[in-house]
């Protein structure tokens, strides 16, 4: 079945460091890919999406590029801030007659000021 | 962005009682979901619901769980009877549903079963 794998469970960085969170997916069809961010005590918030190969999604300085060849959608940010500390989820959405949605395990990002 | 409202934000009940969690999805959305998150752990899919029917459910969606959305009102998750392991935060989500559309989440209901 479809699945999403996030390699890093926890990431700790200093402010202004470069961020990469790896996301790989497995899907039988041609899914849409998403990044969500979850702050403590809140529900996941949609960050951005990409729907086709080589499309770049971006928001708030975060970006990721849909790569069908490597089945990846890695999240990057050039310079993180303390306020970016949160849990980040990669997700996959397929329309198989009804909509299926799969989340990765999440990556907890801590940015140290 | 679009808002999904969940009522209540916290619920404490005794084991064996019934509980209903309410969700007011985005007004023109067609697909509805429940996810469960135990403190400090990942979100886990419970069920999705479309056109008045459960389309898919996970093994976490026990026989004691049920969902409905009568007449376009709240989308509800009912647990009857509750068990200690049902303690978690339950997130409702909705989407327009055409071509893998974006899911929008509520802020969750923290359920504590004593």
Description:
The complex is a heterodimer of chains A (113) and B (114). Chain A is built from no helices and twelve strands. By secondary structure, chain A is mainly β. Chain B has 114 residues and is an all-beta fold. In chain B, 0% of the residues lie in helices and 50% in strands. Chain B has no helices and eleven strands. Chain B has strands spanning 5-7, 10-13, 19-24, 31-37, 43-50, 53-57, 65-68, 75-79, 88-95, 104-105, 109-113. In chain B, the strands form two sheets. In chain B, strands 2, 4, 5, 6, 9, 10 and 11 form a seven-stranded mixed beta sheet that branches. The radius of gyration of chain B is 13 Å and the shape is globular. Chain B starts with a strand and ends with a strand. The A-B interface holds A 31-32, 34, 36, 41-46, 49, 51, 89, 91, 93-95, 98-106 and B 1, 4, 31, 33, 42-43, 45, 48, 50, 55-56, 91, 93, 95, 97-108.
This entry's quaternary arrangement is heterodimer
What is the alpha-carbon Rg of chain B in Å?
13 Å
List how many beta strands of chain A DSSP finds.
Answer: 12
SSE order of chain B, as H and E? EEEEEEEEEEE
Tell me the major beta sheet of chain A: 6 strands, mixed
Percent of sequence in beta strands of chain B: over 45%
Terminal-residue CA separation of chain A = 41 Å
Helix fraction of chain B? under 10%
Largest sheet of chain B: 7 strands, mixed
Helix and strand run of chain A: EEEEEEEEEEEE
Rounded to the nearest angstrom, the distance between the terminal CA atoms of chain B is 36 Å
Helix content of chain A: under 10%
Uncertain segments of chain B are: none
Biggest protein-protein contact in the assembly: A-B, 26 and 26 residues
Number of strands of chain B: 11
**How many helices of chain B in DSSP terms?**
0
How big a fraction of the residues of chain A is strand? over 45%
Q: How confident overall, as mean pLDDT of chain A?
A: 92
Primary descriptors:
heterodimer; A: 113 residues; six-stranded mixed sheet; four-stranded antiparallel sheet; 12 strands; B: 114 residues; mainly beta
